[in-house]
Design brief:
Blueprint: H1 2-23, E1 32-40, E2 45-48, E3 52-55, E4 59-66, E5 70-77, E6 86-89, E7 94-102, E8 106-112, E9 116-118, E10 123-132, E11 137-140, E12 145-148, E13 155-158, E14 163-167, E15 174-178, E16 192-196, E17 227-235, E18 240-242, E19 245-246, E20 250-253, E21 260-267, E22 274-277, E23 282-289, E24 296-299, E25 305-312, E26 323-328, E27 344-351, E28 365-371, E29 378-380, E30 383-385, E31 389-393, H2 396-403, E32 409-410, E33 413-416, E34 419-423, H3 429-437, E35 441-444, H4 452-459
Parallel strand pairs: 1-7, 8-10, 9-11, 10-12, 10-13, 11-14, 12-15, 13-16, 14-17, 15-17, 16-20, 17-21, 20-22, 21-23, 22-24, 23-25, 24-26, 25-27, 26-28, 27-29, 27-30, 28-31, 29-32, 30-33, 31-34, 33-35
Antiparallel strand pairs: 1-3, 2-4, 4-6, 5-7, 18-19
């Protein structure tokens, strides 16, 4: 019995020893480190593997994959360089950042261009004065965006013999605008569009304003063709280089009637909206919005035709030289040079700077129509509102042109909050009044405390379309300019004047329209025009 107890004691000792020996044989735990991977910015792409543990001394391959529209640039953190994929040894915790950047689709345009097409899948930056020379055609696809650089006063110049084919569509207009960021755009950010042709002017080898070195325009070919432009917007353009030496939103010098320019909008320009220096080009559907100086400026013997034009004035945008809806000259002085400036306009609507009596506006806003220096333009079937003065003749030679019938003002309505007529340079107000009231209508706005809004509605004009009711930030992007129901402007257009039978005019004008002004029941600005481009992000198009 004693022997059995001893054996059991030894068995217990051996068992305990075995257990203790077995415990001493356990393996040590595996060592890991954390690999942190980050994409910067997060929308730029992805990094694999994702953040997580990695075995000690493991060689880990890291791959950066860019999202559409982005590209991988470099590694930062515990890995540097541009190799992709890249490997890292996990001998400690590691943090790796993959840096991505957006792929730039902006193509810079400088100097003199060769024949090429600008496609809508890219955007373009004009730097300095960019020329389309003789024999070269620049084609722009619908929906293309072109920026003008502010620092270099970028300007697109189509020289004589060059052509610009810019056929936008209602749904996909072509846009030329400021290169400044949304919210920072302003008038005069770039030089605008200059088109030069070989049609007649009344000057000898004139140089176009604002271009250096000087460029000559004009010639003897009234059928000259500088291209085709439709559904085109030009925003924040026009730069004054020196006094009386500036580019406009769109400057046309000697542009011939073989050129097509319809459905064109200029806005927030630093000088004039449209300026014609001679030439014979015809237009339909023009918009000048919040232009700094004159909206429709006619000089040097322009003899083309314009039907359907809209002017909307900002009450505080006006130039010290006096700003007008129409400004027309025959030449730079009062000399009797020919061909006379005889451009003919019909169906124009002007929403001037002052919507009601007493509205505060810039003192540099002056005339609905300012006729100067022997000009003889004709205006028909149009409605003018909101300028302090309705009509001015600034020289006696202007009076003589209209008394002789070279220029005609007929079947227009002047709705005026202040003075009706003015004169200067030997002209007299009585003659201005007599010529206008022989074939046109003048109406005074109701007093400030009377129902002036309903007064406009009676004509079919929407008082909400005056800029004076808004700020730069709040004017509607797509206001409705169609005539209100039962407005008196819906009928009364008259195309019986002999001007419309002239060989260079008879085929241009649509003589079937009944309405006075630019609009009937249809608003032709809808969809393609933009009346508040300040904050529009064109880079996302």
């Amino acid at each position: 019995m004693k022997q059995v107890k001893n054996l059991m004691r030894w068995a217990t000792v051996l068992a305990v020893a075995f257990v203790m020996f077995s415990c001493g044989e356990d393996t040590e735990p595996t060592v890991t480190y954390t690999l942190s991977t980050v994409a910067l910015p997060a929308q730029g792409g992805t990094v694999s593997p994702a953040t997580g543990p990695q075995a000690q001394n493991a060689n880990v391959q890291i791959t950066a994959t860019a999202n559409a529209g982005w590209q991988f640039v470099r590694w930062e953190g515990d890995v540097t360089g541009t190799t992709n994929p890249v490997s890292v040894t996990m001998n400690a915790d590691k943090a790796v950042v993959a840096v991505f950047e957006q792929v730039s689709n902006i193509v810079e345009l400088e100097g003199t261009l060769t024949t090429r097409t600008l496609t809508a899948d890219k955007q373009y930056l004009l730097k300095g004065q960019v020329f389309v020379p003789n024999g070269v055609t620049l084609t722009i696809e619908p929906g293309t965006v072109i920026y003008g650089e502010k620092r270099s006063r970028a300007t697109l110049v189509v020289n004589r013999g060059g052509r610009l084919i810019a056929r936008g569509t209602k749904e996909r207009p072509i846009i030329m605008t400021s290169a400044q960021s949304p919210g920072e755009r302003d008038r005069g950010d770039w030089g605008g569009l200059v088109i030069l042709g070989r049609a007649r002017t009344n000057q000898v080898d004139p140089n176009i304003e604002g271009i250096d070195p000087p460029v000559v325009f004009g010639g003897t070919d009234d059928d000259d063709n500088s291209g085709e432009m439709t559904y085109l917007r030009v925003e924040y353009a026009g730069i004054e280089l020196t006094p009386n030496n500036e580019t406009n939103s769109i400057t046309m010098g000697g542009v011939g009637r073989g050129t097509k320019m319809d459905y064109i909008m200029v806005s927030f320009g630093g000088d004039d909206g449209f300026e014609w220096f001679g030439g014979t080009v015809n237009h339909k559907y023009l918009i000048s919005h919040s232009t700094w100086d004159d909206d429709l400026d006619v000089d040097f013997g322009y003899s083309g035709n314009v039907q359907f034009a809209l002017v909307v004035r900002n009450p505080f945008f006006a130039d010290q030289s006096q700003s007008n809806a129409f400004e027309a000259d025959n030449g730079p002085n009062d000399n009797d040079v020919q061909p006379y400036t005889t451009g003919t306009f019909s169906n124009v609507t002007v929403y001037g700077p002052r919507d009601r009596v007493g509205r505060s506006i810039s003192g540099n806003n002056f005339h609905s129509i300012d006729l100067r220096r022997r000009t003889a333009i004709s205006i028909f079937n149009s409605v003018f509102t909101g300028f302090p003065v309705g009509l001015r003749f600034n020289t006696q030679s202007v009076t003589q042109q209209y008394q002789a019938g070279r220029g005609v003002l007929a079947n227009n309505i002047l709705i005026n909050p202040n003075a009706d007529y003015a004169a200067g340079g030997g002209a007299v107000v009585a003659d201005v009044q007599s010529i206008w009231e022989a074939s046109n209508t003048t109406v005074r706005l109701p007093a400030a405390d009377e129902p002036w809004e309903n007064f406009y509605r009676g004509y079919g004009l929407n008082p909400d379309n005056f800029f004076a009711r808004y700020t730069l930030a709040t004017y509607p992007r797509n206001p409705n300019f169609s005539l209100l129901a039962n407005g008196t402007l819906a009928s009364g257009a008259d195309f019986s004047n002999a001007k419309f039978a002239e060989a260079v005019r008879t085929n241009h004008f649509d003589k079937t329209v009944q309405f006075i002004g630019a609009f009937g029941a249809e608003d032709w600005t809808d969809t393609w025009a933009e009346f508040n481009p300040l904050n529009v992000n064109y880079s996302s198009r």
